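Why predict the complex rather than its parts? Because the way molecules touch one another can change local conformation, and only a joint prediction can capture that. The input here totals 650 residues.
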Amino acid sequence: MKDALSQIKDLIHAHRSFVVLSHIRPDGDAYGTSLALALVLRALGKQAVVYSQDGLSRNYLFLPGKELIERTPAFAPPADTAILAVDTSTRERLGESFLAWNRVPDLNLDHHASNPGYGKINIIDGESPASAQVLYELLEALDYPCPPEAAVNLYVGLMTDTGSFRFRQTTARTFEVAADLVTLGADPALASQHCYQSSSVERFNLQREVLGASRFTCGNRVAYYHLTQDLYAKTGAHSDEVENFLEQLQTVATVEVAFMLEDLDKGVTRASLRSRGKIDVNAIAAKFGGGGHRLAAGIRSSLPAAELERKLLAEIEAALQPFTA
Amino acid sequence: MKDALSQIKDLIHAHRSFVVLSHIRPDGDAYGTSLALALVLRALGKQAVVYSQDGLSRNYLFLPGKELIERTPAFAPPADTAILAVDTSTRERLGESFLAWNRVPDLNLDHHASNPGYGKINIIDGESPASAQVLYELLEALDYPCPPEAAVNLYVGLMTDTGSFRFRQTTARTFEVAADLVTLGADPALASQHCYQSSSVERFNLQREVLGASRFTCGNRVAYYHLTQDLYAKTGAHSDEVENFLEQLQTVATVEVAFMLEDLDKGVTRASLRSRGKIDVNAIAAKFGGGGHRLAAGIRSSLPAAELERKLLAEIEAALQPFTA
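Output of the joint prediction:
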């Protein structure tokens, strides 16, 4: 890492202007880490903006520095603007507008172990629970400042990507970083209120419809639901305020695999899968052209939802077979 | 605290046998802190058991050292057995069996600011988010060992009483303590799987019934539900695996007050209230003989649920009045 560190110092020294990018359908870690990086660069006297294919979603309007986020423009920035990618496992997930620029990111900072290293400099820590933690450790190593607004953003990234310090990869180090970020200005209760207690009543109504219609099968080892456009219409919820409700299904001890299907536009069905540990849902997703991690994976398919459901259930049942007493 | 510290050292030095007690309807902090204290005492070569009026609830069967928990016996322990109370805001909440002993606890360790200090030695830190944190800091100050099993119990107390590091009073210090406990042997993902992903499908079915029947009123600023014996019968859920579902109602941004009513045996109605911040639900609960904190309070009433509901709604509406634009 020594080498990468001096390369990053050189990169930042050599440029006046920076663009920070993260992945499509951004989550708290994508927004938080990219905003934090832009804020740190500005604290160093640089110009920095955050581009996102999808812009800023309504769930994250509370993030300090949110005015730095713009939709990724069609035209590439000048050649002397450095391009920094965070929290994005593949080049493609940086979004179509970025791909059209035909540029290689100068820095690729991520915590997805599957990241192939598509940047000129690559800082990838697949053990880390969040890109926010990777960036915080980088700032420490570089002895760069972390302004309070950056700390708030990093805290949001860390909190959301660890499911509030619940997921695997949450270590003593994660809590040490959280302690530092709170000391630097993050407010845990406020961040959690923004992230977990700021839904619309429409989203709540969608959630109760979905939970009411969720099905359990294979001796309650599989739970799933189908999020239809009808449910959105019935409840008035917006798709950009709904990540998924799989965490709710996973509260049940017997549930080894939870999944959801969603009808998207243009005949595309999205599926999202979660495993408790025994089943590798990445392997299952791969059979339908999807991917992710062992415990969390996604699929985009041209199969109709009912057919994808049937095929997924068959694959999951087969995967559970060896674990059947 | 210097004085209290040497008093505690003397207390532990002077006794060979200890009973640790916590409050009725124990939660993760009550079980975790009392078990941790007993395990530390045993590591010091002492005899120690944990008494609980309600015994061990099925949700906490995973706690290491759980075999130390017994139902509080009718007869008091010998006079030379020291009695240590943890996480219990009033003497009465230690349970009827304890009250019949007619003994004063030698130590009263708690984080409830309202604790009147009913012990011979009182260690009360009303700023602390959990009794587990108070005990951990005491162990540090005393330079006592914290075996791995004790660390797991303290972590469970800290995690559950902070709502997974979300509630107010979660500070940098809380995260430092969490980091230490993980270093000492606690596993965050495992603890969270035990506490948040180990429900029965019956509990899930009760939850979806409850959410489906929850009502929103006062411009969605109040949300509530009524947990009837019929719902328990319909779903087969056990009351000892159900704390409450108010957290779900509090996900809605507009909800200032969430409350639930439950029919208990013998014509008793239980109510539980939560506030987002503006409304003091402790003051409302006090009008019905209940109490708690500003943001979380409870009531036990002989009023029928429908009548308590009507009266509570009127009080809450009046309390919201000053905040109506």
